[in-house]
């Protein structure tokens, strides 16, 4: 009975979403206040029913209700409760429900925090979000219903894919979706602005904090996913350029461009059409990712079970949402160049160049991801596009971005002062050279490591120099507005990320070794002694667990326990052991006994020494923190009156 | 469809004893080991199709790694080893597609986008900087 | 007009995705089209199942077209295609050579006893090396090799009656047309 209630709740949510999507937009068009007033209550109602459906699905998992096919497929009696909750979004149907759930979280937040905005504008924004909700709720109800019954009810269920039975996986999808779906807010804002025809600066100011927060969530989600792949897949890699990863990376790249473009449009009034277009792109790419992952048009390691019917539905949905919004853009985007004039050497130009680099990178990722399909379509034969392609071109496109990044804060709006730039370049250049010379001694001539240190030192020195400059020149309390602090933290994160990527990629050592109990091997200056394999059990698995003692210069550093787990449904999963450190990770994965079945004998092991690998995620976390921090800018929260008063004040300054 | 499911199952679950990505091989020296790691990371496993040969648990990946190792021992160059695999498994196994007319779009497309975008940016900047001369005096206000 | 460029790009993308959905209904993404088709089959000399001292080479099989079916006792799908192999494929009238891939000969013999042996002869590629020369990457796979020893057709995955009608028969007809 309860699962049927869940389905019923989704039907009611769909009806309310239709109301939310149609009436307020009509109201805003006709100037009918009563219709516009429908937006908030309808959004609240939709949220209540979607939250109820989510609660019911979670309950079905917790209560082992195997009469629900989705529950039976993805959980069993032995699965611990926390992974039964994770299993809710462990497969297609539930993850779509999570998508809608998060859409409603954003909608409710927006409805609650938009009281200071003009009513027609809010009505349009909530209306657009309602229409997106209609599309996804209908998709769930007609093609991917998680509440379908399976009768007779099986005594026990299948299993959640063991790869997903990891704390990282509990966390990764909801956070990633917070980012993906969050871009729907910026999308709805720009659609509302296009519909309203009032393409003034104000909508961008309102949209900025939402964009920053979604981008920060997306960053966090990608970091969590990367960490999960590193810890769980057992390959020691942290990014594979898989279509699914690319699907999340494209909106991220466009998000970077969007955050910067919004700053230009908000403060200087320039690039309004480009900002609208980027908002449309960011969310379109999020939707595109959903399509790519679920339609089965591309092969991927962790694609969902594909189904052409679902693919067609999502494609139709894409045509309506993306096609419709791009058509609206083509018709209604502002045609005259607005905003204040700027010189060739100015922050506007700098941001335009950065935008170009980031959107080109996103286009490159899209092209590489889709090229195998293009190859099929144009009969070029089957082509594989993998890490060597993406890695090469991405570095090529991002190298100028890294070079230009420290100049950003020094570039003034309108017209930059060349003297400041050269002073900064001189200081950071010296810092970079000093660090590079130091790195040459440690990196043993490995060019990538040296380039990484040079780039990171350049970015970090330039960013820190600006921190110092502000500290010296500005009075206390006005030194670091939240928006600027966010920018500085995020830019500093780039330096950390560079160190992490370049050093771990070039200095890591990996060895596959055969080890008999008592035998020792040396990797990256550490000695690994294999002390045999023992049996161990967990809530829903049993495992062969290797014992490896790690020594440095004869002193024991750590005892590591890599496992080879067999889950309750017979799936085998390698569980690597990691000894983390700020400057290096030690990573051990257990393979198979060398003579099949002889567990007492020698085993195959993979040993890694990965210097600075943690800085990759540390850098990502800095970028995320920067996003959140910038969103806290007081100016964004100012009431309508203050916000409009602020803009002319600025104009007088410039 | 069923075969697809089976492939997926095989990729995720190394049920077979010989299916294991961790494969200790008797390399002559560290340089050879690095060369092997680099080469096998540039090749795609024909079975578990989104994994490199280096990472894949599929039985065929195991065999191909062994084959690559033996060819390296026999003094074959990377290009010869790649050609050997392409002859048997088509250019599908190359994760780094060769630059040839069919892949020009792939390799030069992004640069084309960059060039086109660069022109647009340059034109915009030129037009805007001519429109009205920006204030020459640098104000010391906090214009952040 | 430049405002329509993004829309235009999107239309192209939609066309590509539409193609992708259509294409994938008819093609298995996991299938790699073999570059060996219409090329001479690789030379091999492999022991016969049950009598390891005896070898069968490519030369010995020249003169008449035959099917080469890659199978293994560990292969789940081979069980599913087995009835089709024994009936429809057998009825096509060509010799059927079993290629026992990466298997323990004892397990293979037991498997053939259990399910029945549709093969005229079975050769053993225990370590999968000959398989690599044939571009085999899993089982089951089926090759059609003509009398001159040229690979004419390859099917990846289990054979279904539909595959026999729609692919095997036309391939054979093409062979017959040449008088091969």
UniProtKB/TrEMBL annotation, chain A:
<feature type="transmembrane region" description="Helical">
    <location>
        <begin position="121"/>
        <end position="142"/>
    </location>
</feature>
<keyword id="KW-1003">Cell membrane</keyword>
<dbReference type="GO" id="GO:0020037">
    <property type="term" value="F:heme binding"/>
</dbReference>
<keyword id="KW-0472">Membrane</keyword>
<feature type="transmembrane region" description="Helical">
    <location>
        <begin position="352"/>
        <end position="374"/>
    </location>
</feature>
<keyword id="KW-1133">Transmembrane helix</keyword>
<feature type="transmembrane region" description="Helical">
    <location>
        <begin position="209"/>
        <end position="229"/>
    </location>
</feature>
<feature type="transmembrane region" description="Helical">
    <location>
        <begin position="96"/>
        <end position="114"/>
    </location>
</feature>
<dbReference type="InterPro" id="IPR032523">
    <property type="entry name" value="CcmF_C"/>
</dbReference>
<feature type="transmembrane region" description="Helical">
    <location>
        <begin position="449"/>
        <end position="468"/>
    </location>
</feature>
<dbReference type="InterPro" id="IPR002541">
    <property type="entry name" value="Cyt_c_assembly"/>
</dbReference>
<dbReference type="GO" id="GO:0015232">
    <property type="term" value="F:heme transmembrane transporter activity"/>
</dbReference>
<dbReference type="Pfam" id="PF01578">
    <property type="entry name" value="Cytochrom_C_asm"/>
</dbReference>
<feature type="transmembrane region" description="Helical">
    <location>
        <begin position="312"/>
        <end position="331"/>
    </location>
</feature>
<dbReference type="InterPro" id="IPR003568">
    <property type="entry name" value="Cyt_c_biogenesis_CcmF"/>
</dbReference>
UniProtKB/TrEMBL annotation, chain B:
<comment type="function">
    <text>Possible subunit of a heme lyase.</text>
</comment>
<keyword id="KW-0732">Signal</keyword>
<feature type="signal peptide">
    <location>
        <begin position="1"/>
        <end position="19"/>
    </location>
</feature>
<dbReference type="Pfam" id="PF03918">
    <property type="entry name" value="CcmH"/>
</dbReference>
<dbReference type="InterPro" id="IPR005616">
    <property type="entry name" value="CcmH/CycL/Ccl2/NrfF_N"/>
</dbReference>
<feature type="domain" description="CcmH/CycL/Ccl2/NrfF N-terminal">
    <location>
        <begin position="8"/>
        <end position="141"/>
    </location>
</feature>
<dbReference type="InterPro" id="IPR038297">
    <property type="entry name" value="CcmH/CycL/NrfF/Ccl2_sf"/>
</dbReference>
<keyword id="KW-0479">Metal-binding</keyword>
<keyword id="KW-0201">Cytochrome c-type biogenesis</keyword>
<keyword id="KW-0349">Heme</keyword>
<dbReference type="GO" id="GO:0017004">
    <property type="term" value="P:cytochrome complex assembly"/>
</dbReference>
<dbReference type="GO" id="GO:0046872">
    <property type="term" value="F:metal ion binding"/>
</dbReference>
<feature type="transmembrane region" description="Helical">
    <location>
        <begin position="104"/>
        <end position="123"/>
    </location>
</feature>
<dbReference type="InterPro" id="IPR051263">
    <property type="entry name" value="C-type_cytochrome_biogenesis"/>
</dbReference>
<keyword id="KW-0472">Membrane</keyword>
From TrEMBL, chain C:
<dbReference type="InterPro" id="IPR036249">
    <property type="entry name" value="Thioredoxin-like_sf"/>
</dbReference>
<dbReference type="GO" id="GO:0015036">
    <property type="term" value="F:disulfide oxidoreductase activity"/>
</dbReference>
<dbReference type="InterPro" id="IPR004799">
    <property type="entry name" value="Periplasmic_diS_OxRdtase_DsbE"/>
</dbReference>
<dbReference type="GO" id="GO:0017004">
    <property type="term" value="P:cytochrome complex assembly"/>
</dbReference>
<dbReference type="Pfam" id="PF08534">
    <property type="entry name" value="Redoxin"/>
</dbReference>
<dbReference type="GO" id="GO:0030288">
    <property type="term" value="C:outer membrane-bounded periplasmic space"/>
</dbReference>
<dbReference type="GO" id="GO:0005886">
    <property type="term" value="C:plasma membrane"/>
</dbReference>
<keyword id="KW-1015">Disulfide bond</keyword>
<feature type="domain" description="Thioredoxin">
    <location>
        <begin position="35"/>
        <end position="177"/>
    </location>
</feature>
<dbReference type="InterPro" id="IPR013766">
    <property type="entry name" value="Thioredoxin_domain"/>
</dbReference>
<dbReference type="InterPro" id="IPR013740">
    <property type="entry name" value="Redoxin"/>
</dbReference>
<dbReference type="InterPro" id="IPR050553">
    <property type="entry name" value="Thioredoxin_ResA/DsbE_sf"/>
</dbReference>
<keyword id="KW-0201">Cytochrome c-type biogenesis</keyword>
<keyword id="KW-0676">Redox-active center</keyword>
<comment type="similarity">
    <text>Belongs to the thioredoxin family. DsbE subfamily.</text>
</comment>
């Amino acid at each position: 009975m309860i699962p049927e209630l869940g389905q019923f709740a989704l039907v009611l949510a769909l009806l309310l979403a239709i109301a939310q999507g149609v009436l307020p937009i009509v109201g805003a068009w006709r100037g009918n206040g009563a219709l516009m007033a429908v937006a908030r209550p309808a959004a609240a109602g939709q949220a209540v029913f979607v939250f109820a459906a989510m609660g019911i699905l979670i309950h079905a998992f917790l209560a082992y209700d195997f009469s629900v096919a989705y529950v039976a497929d993805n959980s069993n009696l032995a699965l611990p409760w926390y992974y039964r909750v994770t299993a809710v979004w462990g497969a297609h149907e539930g993850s779509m429900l999570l998508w809608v759930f998060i859409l409603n979280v954003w909608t409710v937040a927006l409805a609650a925090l938009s009281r200071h905005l003009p009513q027609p504008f809010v009505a349009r924004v909530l209306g657009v979000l309602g229409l997106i909700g209609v599309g996804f709720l209908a998709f769930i109800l007609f093609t991917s219903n998680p509440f379908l019954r399976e009768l007779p009810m099986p005594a026990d269920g299948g299993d959640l894919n063991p790869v997903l039975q990891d704390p990282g996986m509990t966390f990764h999808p909801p956070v990633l979706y917070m980012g993906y779906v969050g871009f729907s807010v910026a999308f709805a804002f720009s659609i509302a602005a296009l519909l309203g025809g009032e393409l003034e600066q104000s909508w961008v100011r309102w949209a900025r904090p939402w964009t920053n927060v979604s981008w920060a969530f997306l960053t966090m989600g990608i970091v969590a996913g990367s960490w999960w792949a590193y810890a769980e897949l057992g390959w020691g890699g942290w990014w594979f350029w898989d279509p699914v990863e690319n699907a999340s990376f494209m909106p991220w790249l466009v998000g970077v461009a969007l955050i910067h473009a919004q700053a230009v449009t908000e403060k200087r009034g320039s690039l309004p059409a480009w900002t609208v277009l980027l908002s449309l792109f960011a969310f379109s790419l999020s939707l595109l990712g959903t399509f790519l992952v679920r339609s089965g048009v591309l092969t991927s390691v962790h694609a969902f079970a594909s189904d052409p019917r679902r693919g067609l539905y999502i494609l139709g949905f894409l045509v309506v949402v993306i096609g419709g919004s791009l058509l609206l853009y083509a018709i209604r985007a502002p045609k005259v160049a607005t905003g204040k004039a700027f010189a060739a050497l100015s922050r506007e130009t700098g941001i335009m160049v950065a935008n170009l680099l980031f959107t080109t990178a996103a286009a490159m990722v899209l092209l590489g991801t889709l090229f195998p399909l293009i190859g099929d379509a144009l009969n070029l034969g089957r082509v594989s596009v993998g890490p060597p392609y993406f890695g090469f071109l991405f570095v090529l496109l991002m190298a100028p971005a890294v070079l230009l990044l420290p100049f950003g804060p020094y570039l003034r709006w309108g017209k930059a002062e060349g003297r400041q730039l050269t002073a900064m370049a001189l200081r950071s250049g010296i810092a970079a050279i000093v660090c590079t010379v130091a790195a040459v001694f440690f990196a043993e001539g490995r060019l990538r490591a040296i380039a990484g240190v040079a780039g990171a030192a350049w970015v970090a020195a330039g960013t820190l120099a600006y921190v110092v400059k502000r500290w010296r020149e500005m009075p206390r309390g006005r030194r670091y507005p939240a928006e600027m602090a966010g920018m500085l933290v995020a830019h500093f994160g780039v330096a950390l990320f560079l160190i992490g990527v370049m050093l771990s990629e070039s200095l890591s050592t990996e060895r596959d070794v055969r080890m008999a109990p008592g035998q020792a091997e040396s990797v990256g200056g550490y000695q690994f002694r294999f002390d045999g394999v023992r049996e161990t059990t967990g809530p829903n698995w049993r495992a062969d667990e290797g014992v490896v003692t790690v020594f440095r210069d004869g002193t024991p550093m750590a005892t590591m326990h890599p496992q080879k787990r067999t889950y309750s449904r017979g799936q085998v999963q390698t569980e690597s052991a990691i000894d983390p450190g700020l400057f290096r990770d030690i990573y051990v994965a257990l393979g198979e006994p060398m003579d099949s079945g002889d567990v007492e004998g020698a085993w195959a092991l993979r040993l890694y020494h990965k210097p600075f690998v943690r800085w990759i995620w540390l850098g990502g976390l800095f970028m995320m923190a920067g996003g959140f921090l910038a969103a806290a800018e007081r100016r964004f929260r100012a009431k309508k009156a203050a916000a409009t008063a602020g803009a002319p004040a600025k104009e007088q300054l410039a | 469809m069923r075969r697809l499911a089976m492939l997926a199952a095989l990729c995720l679950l190394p049920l077979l004893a010989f299916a294991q990505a961790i494969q200790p091989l008797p390399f002559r020296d560290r340089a050879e080991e690095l060369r092997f790691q680099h080469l096998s990371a540039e090749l795609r496993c024909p079975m578990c199709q989104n994994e490199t040969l280096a990472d894949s648990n599929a039985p065929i990946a195991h065999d191909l790694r062994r084959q690559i190792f033996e060819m390296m021992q026999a003094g074959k160059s990377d290009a010869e080893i790649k050609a050997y695999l392409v002859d048997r498994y088509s250019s599908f196994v190359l994760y780094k597609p060769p630059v040839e007319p069919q892949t020009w779009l792939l390799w030069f497309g992004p640069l084309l986008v960059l060039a086109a975008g660069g022109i647009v940016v340059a034109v915009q900047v030129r037009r805007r900087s001519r429109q009205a001369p920006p204030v020459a005096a640098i104000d010391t206000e906090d214009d952040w | 007009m430049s405002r329509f460029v993004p829309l235009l790009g999107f239309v192209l993308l939609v066309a590509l995705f539409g193609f992708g959905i259509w294409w994938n209904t008819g093609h298995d993404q996991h299938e790699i089209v073999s570059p060996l088709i219409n090329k001479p089959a690789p030379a091999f000399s492999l022991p016969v199942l049950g009598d390891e001292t005896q070898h069968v080479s490519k030369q010995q099989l020249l003169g008449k077209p035959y099917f080469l079916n890659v199978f293994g006792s560990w292969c789940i799908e081979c069980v599913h295609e087995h009835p089709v192999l024994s009936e429809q494929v057998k009825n096509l009238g060509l010799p059927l050579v079993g290629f026992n891939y990466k298997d323990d000969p004892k397990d293979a013999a037991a498997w053939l006893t259990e399910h029945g042996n549709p093969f005229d002869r079975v050769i053993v590629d225990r370590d999968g090396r000959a398989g690599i020369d044939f571009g085999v990457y899993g089982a089951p796979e089926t090759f059609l090799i003509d009398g001159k020893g040229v690979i004419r057709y390859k099917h990846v995955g289990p054979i279904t009656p539909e595959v026999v009608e729609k692919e095997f028969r036309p391939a054979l007809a093409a062979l017959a047309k040449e008088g091969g």
